[in-house]
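Standup, Tuesday
Yesterday: got the pipeline producing structure tokens again.
Today: sanity-check two examples.
Blockers: none.

Example 1:
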Amino acid sequence: MPWSLKRYYNTGAIHFITWSCYQRKPLLDNPGRRDLVLAVLELMRLRYRFAVVGYVVMPEHVHLLISEPGIGDPSKIIQAVKLRVSRRLAIGGGFCVRFWQTRFYDFNVWSQQKEVEKLKYMHRNPLVRGLVASPEDWQWSSYLSYAYKEPGLVRINDWTWWENKIRSAG
């Protein structure tokens, strides 16, 4: 972890997380690999009990906007996603060398204004990079969930676990 980067967990904040492919190579330029990242993210969402507020999977990196998990912390989630994706690719013969950079960036989002800013940034990323003509053309982001209420591979804004926890505590 960079010396100046501090991680703040158990604060109730939303986390804006970014991690990259090894040496920022476009190792996720294959639609099947991007689908795999999202399938694994959904599996981990259920396992670690966190809400996904937004996401985008780009050819060489991933952005997430997530809640604090009910089990573990965001570091455990990212570790689990990276490990599962790497193993699935290795088993399938899809990749046999390093796939991910070892670290990730985590920014605590403290306001709704900052949350909206991060969502817009993520959803515009494929457009700005010239990968698509419009955000709705990139199926590996949460944009379609927000714009058209279309379900994707990852369930967006499912706070059920947190709501049940609050109900049982009260």
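Example 2:
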Amino acid sequence: MKSNRSNELLGVVRQLAADVDGFQEVRGPGLGNRATNDLMRKLGEKAVELFGPDVAERKICGDNSLAVDFYFKEEATIVEVALGLPNPGSEFEKDVLKAIMAKANGVKVDRLFFISRPGAIKKCNQPGRQAVIDWLGLSHGIQVEVHELKGDPRQRRRSKARPPE
């Protein structure tokens, strides 16, 4: 793996997550959102400190409100911190679309670099997501990398089965 800003940012996210006691625990709506928002705020501050103010929350997808988490122009890389990637319903497709839209808008994009929780690589190797990843590379020249925070995959809380009607 070559050394670059994306990998440096990955190291920062891993350290920030490791510094939060129980970050990988399922907290549910409210508490989980606050923990994620706090992590993203700290990450944004650290990114500005390391890379300058022009890399975070970049609106490079055209004349709309869509923004990528980070864009490193010199690497032609979009970095998305997509903590929900291991989940069945996640921001994966929206992040892929943002990369395509940015490229169509004249922004140089060669790589979409995901940072997620443990379990994301396994989920992205499933046939549906792998087909999207393959298509993105073949049709748009955008390579996808999926990187995980340290630790074990989260144990999802299962809702109780409904009684038969």
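Quick observation on example 2: Residues 5-148 form one domain. Strands lie at 56-58, 68-72, 77-81, 111-116, 143-148.
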